[in-house]
Amino acid sequence: MATVALFTVMMDRCRESSAGSDYALQSCLVVLSTLIATSLAGFSAAAFGYAAHYGLAAVLCGIGLLLLFVNKENVISFRARNA
Predict the structure, then answer these.
(1) At residue 71, what are phi and psi to the nearest 5 degrees?
(2) Full DSSP string of 1-19
């Protein structure tokens, strides 16, 4: 479900004049980011152990949620402008 939400936001962010290029670039960045993140996750789990690794993952998710909450008005206004 998170992938569906992410790709929907990516489509919303594409400019009408170059939607194909914008979407292709964004999806390429998603694939590269996934590759890098999974590699780093393997090293993190091996170096720090699973408990610390999952603790770090929880903290990073918390930071992401905090940023979303802080920027809630910007997200809502973007959606209203592009509806």
Answers:
(1) -100, 20
(2) -HHHHHHHHHHHHS-GGGH
pTM of the model: 0.66
Distances (CA, A) of 46 to 2, 37, 43, 52, 72: 26, 14, 5, 10, 36
The pLDDT assigned to 71 comes to 84
Contacts of 32 (CB under 8 A, 6+ apart): none
For residue 66, tell me if it sits in a domain: yes
Tell me the residue range of the domain where 65 lies.
21-81
Mean pLDDT by 10 residues, the chain (83 residues): 86 88 94 94 94 95 92 71 64
Residue 30 lies in a domain: yes
| DSSP assigned state of 71 | T
Q: Look-up: residue for tokens 């720090």? A: 48
